[in-house]
Amino acid sequence: MKRQLKIFVITALCLALAITLSFIGCKKEEAAEGGMQVKTYTNAADITIGFSLWTMEFTFFQNVEKGVKDACEDLGFKYVMIDQNSDATKMVQDINALVGQKVSGIVVTPVDPGAIGPAVENARKAGIPVVCADIGKSGPVNALMISNNFKGGELAAEFLASKLNDKTKPLGLGNLLPQWTYARQRGEGFLSKAMELEYNVAANIIVQNPSAEGGYDTMQQILSAVPDVAGVYFTSGREAVGAAQAIQAAGKDIWSVGYNGDPEEFQAIKDGVLDATILQEPYYIGYRSVEILKEILMDGKFYENVEVPVDVKLVTPENIDQIAADILEKTGNSAFPAQ
User: Around Cβ 302, how many Cβ atoms within 10 Å?
Assistant: First the structure.
């Protein structure tokens, strides 16, 4: 009798263990993630990634989207994208719509980082992790993929110093508006490295109109304030091209550096108008954002307000062709403007 009871108990325990293990293997196991309950999955086909994109108008965001889409395909996830069309109100509505569609995870490039907080909270309450792909964040996102903007500014200062090789030559900075917290680090890195190299940034002017025209106007202001300026750095692509065109129109010999790696910048470098730019890696930003969601949703890895820096590189006439070829191979998009 005792032997039969013992066999019964062992059998019951084994059955309970088998049931527990099979339950753990279900796709909707929940795990704590910084105070939120995250659904975890064993089957990639059950995962849908929603992407709320700033705009498909610009090549940078096209390449971010390509990275997100390729990662979803490579990892076996379903994919849905909604274009914010550069509209902050639509951005919030789109994120909430993705929550309503019960996506598994969300990637967002926010047109207005300060406005996404409530929508992010809504997603997290639904157990949906959120990764910001560049630009910035507000609210407790799981992760932010962000270019190493400070390093980019340092690279720009080092480039100008190497070309001038004269610490008495003044520099100029075309800076971004204060609300762009993360992008402003591009200017902070430049100012820090210029000081370290003992160069004087004699003009630091905010580009009020973020466009080529705004860059042109700001460069004229720098020329007026510092007529003997020898090198300038503009912290965004279109503005940098406009600034370089203003230098050309004034008949000045001034070194110029931009930031982004926009097609207009690549063409300006190729044409000898702009001297260099700092290239971001939008494709990698998008791809890695999905990999992070995979780590959260399938591997149970913990991410909570983590900032993941993405490397940047200097583009010059010497390496532009090779970098352009790499971009075309990776993204299918030309580094130069469409003909």
Answer: 13
Domain pair 36-134+282-304 / 149-279+317-324, same fold? yes
pLDDT digits (tens, 9 = 90+) for 137-147: 877 899 999 99
CATH superfamily of 36-134+282-304: Response regulator (3.40.50.2300)
Per the DSSP assignment, residues forming a β-bridge with 78 are 48
d(CA 338, CA 43): 40
Helix (H) / strand (E) element for 19: namely helix 2-24
Count of CB atoms within 10 A of residue 8's CB? 10
This model's pTM is above 0.85: no
Band of pLDDT at residue 23, cut at 50, 70 and 90 = very low
pLDDT in tens, 239-253: 999 999 999 999 999
The span from the CA of 328 to the CA of 66, in Å, is 12
Q: Integer distance in angstroms from the first to the last C-alpha of the chain?
A: 88
Rounded to 10°, the helix 282-297/59-75 angle is 30
Residue 231's region, left for phi above 0, alpha for psi from -120 to 50, else beta, is beta
The helix (H) or strand (E) run that includes residue 82 is strand 78-83
Query: In terms of C-beta density within 10 A (0-12 exposed, 13-18 middle, 19 or more buried), how is residue 232 classed?
Result: buried
Q: Which phi and psi angles does 32 have, rounded to 5°?
A: -70, 135
Task: Please name the amino acid found at residue 118.
Answer: P
Per-residue tokens: 133: 């792909």
Helices 320-331, 282-297: inter-axial angle, 10-degree rounding: 40
**Helices and strands, counts by H and E, the chain:** 11, 14
The CATH homologous superfamily to which domain 149-279+317-324 belongs is Response regulator (3.40.50.2300)
The token pair that represents 76 in the structure block: 């076996």
Q: Can you tell me which residue has the tokens 């000081």? A: 195
For the chain, the domains span 36-134+282-304, 149-279+317-324
